Input
Amino acid sequence: MFKGSYVALVTPFTDGEVDLAALKRLVDWHVDQGTHGLVPVGTTGESPTLTHGEHDLVVKTVVDHAAGRIPVIAGAGSNNTIETVRLVMAAKAAGADAALVVTPYYNKPTQAGLIAHFTAAADCGLPIVIYNIPGRSSVDMSVATMAELAKLPMIVGVKDATGDLSRVPKQRMTCGTDFVQLSGEDATALGFNAHGGVGCISVTANVAPSLCAQMQEATLAGDYSTALEITDRLMPLHEAIFLEPGLVGAKYGLSLLGLGNEEVRTPLVGLTDPVKDRIRAGMVHAGLLN
Output
């Protein structure tokens, strides 16, 4: 259902406000660059610092402007099940193709709690992609729990940011080969697909959409030689973007391309100069800048 390079889309701001015109330009650019899908208002879209109204507006704007050209998986996660259901229903009403729902953070539910939470999300009637990122949420959805949830028709896949490539074949064996597995980590995206994944929800794709899409297409075609060449070009950029919060790095990279500004909302702040230098060097290495 969902394959290839999906960009974890940044939310552009100008003078503290969501810049919808800039957001639409980014959507058009990603379509032109060959990006396979859009994921607005995830972590990279600064969802923690958007109001509910802004969150819904960004999703609606991206869906409407994409106009069916590429799929949209809308960020719809919260550690509050009632709020998650509201976000999923809003994404459904906006016309999103699916919702990305993170494992609840901070309150650290049990595996039974995860099943209850994601079952409520699935009952909304929109395809759900589980977002398993224990490094941020402090809870890891077990393979067994994911297999139980995969029995629900609306639970269609996972964005796996565990960094454990052995999870991919384990989840294939328990959830089935039709269960969509998308990497949540740029640096290991090639290995993820080699283990049975079918794509990546990528931060680096904000800055290098064409290369990320080409790498994904190569792996899906079994052309790992080409995929390795592209990964070698991208690896310094992958590393540089994540030296400080990745969305800040992505916005800085976009500013170097003339596609946005560096503005983020606190508690995030702008990059230090050494990290800026590393990102610029990574973009030069990738052939994105002279």
Observations:
- The mean pLDDT is 97.
- The longest strand covers residues 155-160.
- The two ends are 37 Å apart (CA to CA).
- Residues 4-221 form a domain with the TIM Barrel fold (CATH 3.20.20.70).
